[in-house]
Design goal:
It contains 4 helices and 9 strands; from the N terminus they run βαβββαβββααββ. It is an alpha+beta fold. It has a single domain, classed as 2-Layer Sandwich (Alpha-Beta Plaits), CATH 3.30.70.560. The radius of gyration is 15 Å and the shape is globular.
Amino acid sequence: MTAVYVAAGSNVEPDKHLSVALRALASAYGPMTLSPAYKNKAVGFDGADFINLVVGFNTEDPVADVRKQLQKIEAACDRPPDAPKWAPRTMDLDILLFGDLVSNQPGLVIPRPDLVKRSYMLKPMADIAPDVRHPTLDRTMRELWESFQGGEHEMVEVLLGGEPTSPHSGRHRSPESGR
């Protein structure tokens, strides 16, 4: 079995589309670990705020099959296959880590480079897998989050539904402190 971590995000009816995606992922892969959800501003374009989280699951499927399944789920959430990168989206599912796999294939770069550049990927990843080591940086997700310097992507932890769980920003919280 391979441990897989997927970033899930939406800024078009995020509650609806994240619910559809999470049900489809559970149907395809069984038990999952979910991070808290975080609300943050759109990055790279003007648009509604995103709700982002990370999902962890185990599979025996090869990475290409998982990628195809994620694309099917995106399509079920009304995301066109040729959707522009820097635009509003109903669903965005990105493989962050696939076990210890390192891939530089076009369209399938793993570990995902944005994992260590975007707080909305790294923080939820550190929340659910703090001791998982990055396969090329040889540092844990906890260590990467604690040294993260990308504070320009302010985040607020929310319940699916968009309600803040606390008045504090999530951008500088360490995984073990809960603050």
